[in-house]
């Protein structure tokens, strides 16, 4: 039993050390002023920028992805209505298992096939919604769950020189 504890502790320390060493990268979207930070040693493959310039997506070698983007609140959503609408009509293939809304934010998570997804949106100025979307294989839950809160918590609206 003592050996199992040592092995578990060693594995936990190795994971925390590996995660802590991942270099953070902060992305600022020029069009909407959306900002998020994530480890670029994990999310190494940057996808092409969409023509509309609303955000960017990065992939990892093991099948995870992170997308950081902004959008206009064309449907006049509130955080509460965003969660309610997504629960009632999720994206194709998604099963929303958790949704929560605050004064200016909304969180949704669930499953999409064999992947876990997590989306956090912050309602900002000028009728813009800032979002980060994280998706990863369910088999890698132990690796990515600790990163989700940090990445999602980094989402905010730019101020100062980045904000137009």
Structure commentary:
The chain has 164 residues and is an alpha+beta fold. The protein contains 3 helices and 10 strands. It has helices spanning 2-21, 79-88, 141-154, and strands at 24-28, 34-39, 43-46, 55-60, 65-72, 94-101, 105-112, 115-123, 128-137, 156-157. A 7-stranded antiparallel sheet has the order 3-4-5-9-8-7-6, sandwiched between helices. It is globular.
For this entry, give a set of tags.
disordered N terminus, 27% helix, 3-stranded antiparallel beta sheet
The count of strands amounts to: 10
Rounded mean pLDDT is 87
Q: Which sequence of SSEs, written as H and E, runs from N to C?
A: HEEEEEHEEEEHE
Q: Structural class, judged by helices and strands?
A: alpha+beta
What's the oligomerization state? single chain
Write the layout of secondary structure elements.
Elements lengths: L1 H20 L2 E5 L5 E6 L3 E4 L8 E6 L4 E8 L6 H10 L5 E8 L3 E8 L2 E9 L4 E10 L3 H14 L1 E2 L7
């Amino acid at each position: 039993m003592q050996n199992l504890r040592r092995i578990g502790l060693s594995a936990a320390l190795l994971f925390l050390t590996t995660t802590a060493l991942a270099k953070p990268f902060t992305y600022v979207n020029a069009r909407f002023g959306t900002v998020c930070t994530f480890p670029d040693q994990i999310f190494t493959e940057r996808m092409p920028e969409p023509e509309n310039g609303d955000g960017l997506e990065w992939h990892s070698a093991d099948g995870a992805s992170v997308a950081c983007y902004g959008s206009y609140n064309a449907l006049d959503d509130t955080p509460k209505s965003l969660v309610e609408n997504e629960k009632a009509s999720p994206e194709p293939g998604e099963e929303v298992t958790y949704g929560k809304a605050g004064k200016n934010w909304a969180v949704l998570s669930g499953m999409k096939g064999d992947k876990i997804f997590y989306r956090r949106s912050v309602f900002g100025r000028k009728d813009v919604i800032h979002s980060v979307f994280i998706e990863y294989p369910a088999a890698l839950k132990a690796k990515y769950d600790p990163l989700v809160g940090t990445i999602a918590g980094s989402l905010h609206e730019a101020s100062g020189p980045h904000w137009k």
